[in-house]
Structure formats: structure tokens, C-alpha cells
Specification:
Rossmann fold, 2 domains, about 35% helix, alpha/beta, single chain
Length: about 550
Amino acid sequence: MAKFVFVTGGVLSSVGKGILTSSIGKMLQTRSLRVTVVKIDPYVNVDAGTMNPYMHGEVYVTDDGGETDLDLGWYERFLDLNLKTENNFTTGTVYKTVIEKERRGDFLGRCVQIVPHVTNEIKHRIRTVAKNSGADVVLTEVGGTVGDIEGLPFLEAIRQMRLEEGYENTMYVHVALVPVLDVTKEMKTKPLQHSVNELRRIGIQPDIIVARSPEMIDSESRRKIALFGTIPEDAVFCSYNVESIYQVPLILDEQGMGDFVCKRFGFTECKKDFKDWKRFVDALLKPEHEVKIALVGKYAGLADSYVSMSEALRHGGAAARARVCINYLEAEKLEQNPEAIEVLKGFDGIFVPYGFGPRGTEGKIMAIRFARENDIPFLGICYGFQLAIIEYARHVCGLKEANSTEINTYTPNPVIDLMPEQRGIEVKGATMRLGAHKVIIKPETMASKLYAVDEMCERHRHRFEVNLDYFEELEKEGLVFSGKSADGRRMELLELPACFFFFASQFHGEFKSRPGRPDPEYYGFIKACLDKKLGKPKPEF
Ligand code: GLN
């Protein structure tokens, strides 16, 4: 039978619940326990797929094609798991199921209510994950902040789970902000006390309180948090600011949190082993070199829009022993001020990420051209892959008006076009080509050296693809398609052998990148940036 840990957050959003949940998972996992994670999002969208990354951050794609909250990315990276669509659900999903059941007549004429019907559906979903995963511990993160109206049914459901699963099988962890005042440098626990009160008003007494503060809490703050939170002092932990978020499990474990959770659940025989994790953190924190990357994107104002990509670049950096400094550049600004393209000279590599719609695409194409013509290492992902093809078609193959029909429906040279099965689809949610699909690698290419396999499964999220009518023309001019779908009709990877490193993929390698095991295309890119900077020959991998 699984044990359940529920994580809630207080005072404000972005208090680090996702990292805390992942860190608790890590502390348990390093003690040989099997863990899985559920993220509950109290918004009404059925999934994250329809949400603007500029407002909500990136959409994380699972192997089974779920378009999920970006916290699933943190769970997967910290815990090296491959989660499923069922690991993330929203108010929208829950109500949709309940309403469908009601329409089918499953409730046999009863009045359908939030308690028990909606709360039952919530508990059922958490237990389904527990059953399907076979995990020893299921961590459930409740999104939003305690006190939000929309979070109430979820808090009610997890409150009931204590009654049904038993005290010894459930644990509530509450994390809240403990600010330090600018002027007096005083640590203030009052907002945290209020949020614990709010949680208790709903009927949940936390077992552990985590103070999220800029620095380690002092003994007076710890005493107050314990006293007003009605927990022993050794159940108060502090998540203070660290250089890298990958240090968070280490600093919490040092404070005894891993042992505390294990003891509470009766896992007594658990010896911890943080060796691999520490090795990765050390490599990350003590680099020998530095590379500067220009990320030319459309959502550059919000780093969370590209969080998996930035992390994959950092994983690559740790493996190459290089600190990766990422500058987020707005592609549109390059269009408005073409001379600004020269700033790209100051970077060791140019990265063009995913994207949707026409805005900023010409700026990205300018950046790709600059990378190719100046032989600056380049990596393009998804839209970055498609735009690299448009750039090549325009400036090398001479198809001056080449474009994607996503950008210009009437282009005379649609080198990128809607996938045939996408035609006629009007509904936006969950209708792209999503999730893991097979990629076959062409022998004797850079891809074959980088990946060192003949085929692999990679995650996708797109509607458009390379138009096969232009395949020959592009290859004739030197562009190599080094990865294709299993039926050979979808282009998945491209490279330019004449360049130091010019590589792009239709799929998203970042979703499979893990600390200590970077995704090959990201590692290859960082390694190439570093080798070029150090004046070394083109990397052979
Ligand atoms: N907009 C492009 C498409 O739909 C690329 C998508 C992406 O970058 N994820 O095909």
C-alpha cells in the first residue's frame, strides 16, 4: 500500500512547491524508495496545452502525449521518471469526468455535488496513479495558494484522504514564504502563520512546515513557526536561496527532512545514497569554462517559457564542465533593428527554440542565417528546426519566398506545411502530433555519432512539418536530413556537415534530458560551443 505526501503552498504563488515536491521525492528515492508524483492544477482548462507560455510558462509534454504543467518537468528531471498524462489533472479534467458521468446517468438520479462527487473523483485520480505506478510513496502537489477559492475541493479531498488512508500513511507538508525585511533585516513569520491558520480552517493540520526564505531561518523564527504551527521544532525545515535548485534536496536532507519523513512512515531500514546527485551538482557548481548562449525566441520575457530547454542546456554544460550563460533575446527586436544582429557575434552559440505563429519568425530566421554564415554553433528545436529549413531554402536554394504555411498561407514555396492529418482539425486542445514517436537515424552522420543508436523515441508537439516536395532540392544543396520517422516520410533531424555545428530537430530532446545524463543534441551543442571557443577542431563525439 502506498503512502501519501500532500504538498500545499502559502502566502504567494511561485513559492517553490514544485522544487520542494521534487526534492522530497529525491530524498526518498536516494533511500531506495519508489516514488511518483501527481500535480493538481486548480484552473479550469482541461490541460496546459491551450495556455499561453508567456503567461503560464512552457507546456511540458509526456511520453504518452500529455500536454502538462511545467512542474512535471521538474519531477521528471529530479526523479528520472517518465510520467504520464494521468500524473497531472485540473479542475477542468475533474469536472469534465463528473459531468460526463452525470450525463450517462451513472449517479442514478442523485443530486451531484462537490462533496462527495467531485472530491471522490479527485481521490480516485490520486489513487489510480498510486495503483498504476506501484510506488511506495505518492507525492501530490496542490497547485495555487492555500486560501484560493478554486483550490478548495482539492484541499477537501486530501483532507478526507487522511481519514480513509490513516494517519500513518498520510503526511501534509506546507511551504510558505518567510520574508526578510529590507530595512531592518528582520525575518517575518507572520504571513506563514496566517497561511497555516487558513489551512487549519479547512481542516488540515500540517505535519511538516517548510519556510521558504532568502536565508536559513534563525532559532527564534523556528520556535515561532513550531509554536504557532502546532508542530515540534524538528518538523520545521528551511528552503533558503541556493545557487542552483538542484541543491535543494541536499540542503533539506542535511536538516534531517529525509530521515524525518522516513521515520514518520516507518521506513526504518533506509540508507541514503546521494553520490550521483552530488557529482552532478559539483560539476554544475564548479565549472572550468563558460559558454554564452543567445536564445532567440518569442517568449523571451519569461524564462519559464523555456525552462526545459534552459535546463537541458545546463545539463549539457555540467557534462562539458562549462557554465552555461543564457541570454534571452526577443526575436522581434532583431526585425525592428536589423543592425542589432551583430550582438550575436558576442555569443558562443545560437539557440532557436519552439514557437507558434508568425510573430518574431523573421527575427529568428535572421539569427539562424547569422549563425550559418558566421559558423557560430547552432541548435534549433521544433520551430527552430522548421525555420532553419526556411532559411536554407531562401538563402541557399534561392527560393526567395520560401516559408511555412503557418506564417504565410499563400507562400509560393511552402517548404513547411501542415501535416495532412491536421487538415480540417478545428479543435485546439490535444490535437497536435504529440508525445513519443520513433526516430530512425541515418548512418554516418553527426546524429549517428551523437546519439550512438540506430533508432530512438523522442517527444513531439507540432502541427507542421517538412514538405517532401522540397526534400531533394534541400539535400542537393547540402542539407542533410539525418533523422526520419519510421515510415521515412517525416523529417526529424537536420545537419549541415560543412559547418562546425549546425543541428536541429523537429522533436524536443529537452524533455528527456536529465541531470547527469544530458540529452545528446543539447550536450553536442554545448560541447561544440566550448570547443569552438577554445579553438579546438570540430568535435567528433
Ligand atoms: N509551430 C510549429 C508547429 O506547429 C512548431 C511547434 C513547436 O515549436 N513546438 O509545427
